[in-house]
Amino acid sequence: MSPSFDAGGLACLVALADTASFAGAADRLALTPSAVSQRVRALEAQWGQPLVIRTRPLQFTAAGGVLLRLARQWQSLGAQAARELGAGAASGERVPIGVNADSLATWVLPALDGLMRAGLREGHGIDLVVDDQDFTLEALREGAVLGCVSSVGEPLRGCRVQRLGVMRYVAVASPAFVAEMLPEGLRAADLGRAPFLVFNRKDGMARAWAKDAFGLRNVRLRERHVPSSEAYVAAAERGWGIGIAPLLQVEAALAAGRLQRVRPEASVPVTLHWHHWQLGSEPEADTRSATTPDTTLLHRIGDALAQQAAQALEP
To answer: Name one Pfam family in it (predicted).
Structure first.
């Protein structure tokens, strides 16, 4: 006998994931926090294991992540059916996708602009979840998002992956910083002395660049954390340190002389991919046509990202 899934309980899991609290989920669903808790406990009783860790912020167990993934896919399929039945504007579909901060700061917003504007008329929305490109796939695995931009090329089971292009990272610094700190250019001996800008503790780009530039196996850097893609470039322009940034993001500053390349022969190419859950019976990418239109919002997002990436990224 096929297992049964309570739609109300699954909706509570999505609301909990989006708001990170029972009070927020209750507001989202027009319920009381007690009602949300009861529905979650009913799911936990049904499956005989905890689904949610009631901490601040709220967390999902591995089993909770499995049901959250199902809940998001279920909602997406329901929204697609509503559109096909002529109720698209009332569907209220929200699709969370994971992106890395550098892509968000450069080419993702233009890619999604048309869909975001269409969402005002069609009643759908796209929620952006930001993480390092090496970690966005974990959000997809855990059910936090339905699609993601990732540097990982291997698809998860039940997912599809599409290559987007290459984002090339280069080392940059302000002319004043170079004149003061690197009058003879950056040498291996300077790596522990000259500060490097790092996005956060997950960010290994600076170390990857330094290893490649000098052929070293282990590198220890003097790091300064700047956890914003735009502020990261601004900090480099202010002379806070050496930044390893996408060439796409710093081209204007290089042309204007606000930044200059450090060891311009060295760079780190990062290949980006679009991953998404396969929902329902989808036509293969190479067989889709005007006669077999792909109407899912998730696929429209993927198509928009692929089109913009083809213009903005290296092949």
So the answer is: LysR_substrate
